[in-house]
User: Fold this.
Amino acid sequence: MRKNSVLLSELPNETELSVEESGYTITAGELRRDLERDGDLDQANDNWCTIQRKRWKPSAERMVVAYIEQEYDEMYEDWDDRAMECLKDEHYQRIQEVLDEAFKGDSATEYWSYEKDVIIDTAIKGQ
Assistant:
């Protein structure tokens, strides 16, 4: 067994899985059922991984700092220090409120990361 991998048979039914480089998700229980019922070898040979659902949250401070660093290349020496001194906590808070409102939905904030490779070790119909 490879490092950082798990057997399909050991995963709880509700564990979410995805094939690398796809937007498709399925639970471990559904995949086991499909393999036992349909015997789809293409599905069995895909690079399955467990996934961890996450939510991206914009950071006003990180965005402003990155912007100032980017602009510094076109400005004079120590401009970045002066620009940063202009910004107070209340400025970041107001910008953060705007960002939170703009990104309150799921379309740009919800994502998942691949966690562990899944080794298919369950019965496959016809095998």
